[in-house]
Amino acid sequence: MQAHLEREGFSLDEIVWFHPYTTDISYAFEMDEALREAFGDNPPACGSMLAGVQLADPRMKIEFEAVAVKGATRVRVK
Length: 78
Prior knowledge:
By secondary structure, this protein is α/β, with parallel strands linked by helices. It is built from two helices and four strands, in the order αβαβββ.
């Protein structure tokens, strides 16, 4: 994801919305770890995780949609 964003002139910091899909809810913890690694303590807004979905490639476990806005700065809401 980072490489695709950078190729278009964006960064992970400009992702303002994220929506995860997984084939099995048991992958939620792995996905959470990956998101923390990518976004740290300031993740983008997130839609509800959809679990139990069938993805286009049966080898895939997780898919997501992300929206990046050029020049955006995420703020942490307390």
